[in-house]
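Collaborator request, handled under Task 6.
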Amino acid sequence: MLNATWLDTFTTLCDVGHFTRTAELLGMTQPGVSQHLNKLTIQVGKPLIIKDGKSFTLTPAGDAVLAIGVARRQQERELQEAIQADDPDAGTVSIGSSGSIAMWLYPHLLERMHRAPKLVINVTAAPHATILASVLSGTFDLGIVAEPTSHPRLDAQDLTREELCLVVPRSFAGRQVHLPMLDELGFVAHPDAYGYADDLFSLNFKDTYKGADRLRVRTFVNQIGQIPIPVAQGLGYTILPRSGVDAFAGKADLAIIQLPKRRFQDLRIISRKGRSDIARVAALGKLITRAAVALQ
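Structure tokens returned to the collaborator:
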């Protein structure tokens, strides 16, 4: 590797063509310029210039080294231009969230991509621990989580409150429900459903609810887009965040039963410190914040 300082001095000397003016331009002494040239010559192992009085000509080795110096300056200019551009409509942004949030959010992101052809948006559905680790490592630029986060290397911003919904077939709309009725219908379980059931049913059926492990499961599915389908077909009930209901294409065949005590999740948007200052990341963060208002 050529010494970057010596190479820059040599490249400037070739541009200017004069040792004294090179020294003035770089804020150095003329012996200092000569010293950089000598050290670079030793590093290359061959003479770089042939002196002719106060002027000089380049040797073949000097021509080759100058080409490297010019190329390196061009790379640095391109890097500076890329850094300064920081276009909110160009580049890649990766987002991690729960499956229900991902399904709800994706159409909003597609609209953004239509307006910004150079913007690439990657969305991954993942559990809380994976989202946290991926934001910390830089794999995800943004994460949406429903659990408190206080890691010192993360920024967390309150996003919205999202309701946990008891989702039943449309034919149950307006009916008073109780646990035996739901148990007869059967539980459409999914990876988060047991925790949701403990949260929601413990609030509303204190005397009769014995825990999620006692619910009669009719079917289990771990694909978020598939969870409402058996409910819509009258095969069971489930519990989902409102985003998972709103994003389902057949939600006209579903009903949400409003229990006496409502249960909410506090959603937060997280990013690694400093990452949200990048224009494209900041723009998507604002988009998500605006869209999340509808979940309240």
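The cover message to the collaborator said: "The mean pLDDT is 91. The first helix runs from residue 4 to 16. Please let us know whether this matches your experimental observations."
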